[in-house]
Amino acid sequence: MGITSAIVLYAVIWFMTFLVIIPIRLETQGDKGEVVPGTHAGAPEKHFLKQKAWITTGVAAVLWAVVCAIIISGVISVHDFDWMGMLPERQ
User: What are the residue ranges of helices labelled H in 1-91?
Assistant: First the structure.
């Protein structure tokens, strides 16, 4: 795996993890009972984005290390996903 592939893999894992972590502990204006005029009741009152970004970075780093170890070790390769038999044989 090249450096560019590793960076792209980390970015994809980071954003997927971030989208999972964002709704955790989200407090909406409707939950607080103080809806600001002109906003939706589901708008966040407290979102803790900075904390969630740091948590995402740590979780994504661990997941990235596991995925990279699997890819580099060769346990799973691109040939495992070649169901049509279109890739050349391994050498």
Answer: 3-21, 29-32, 49-73
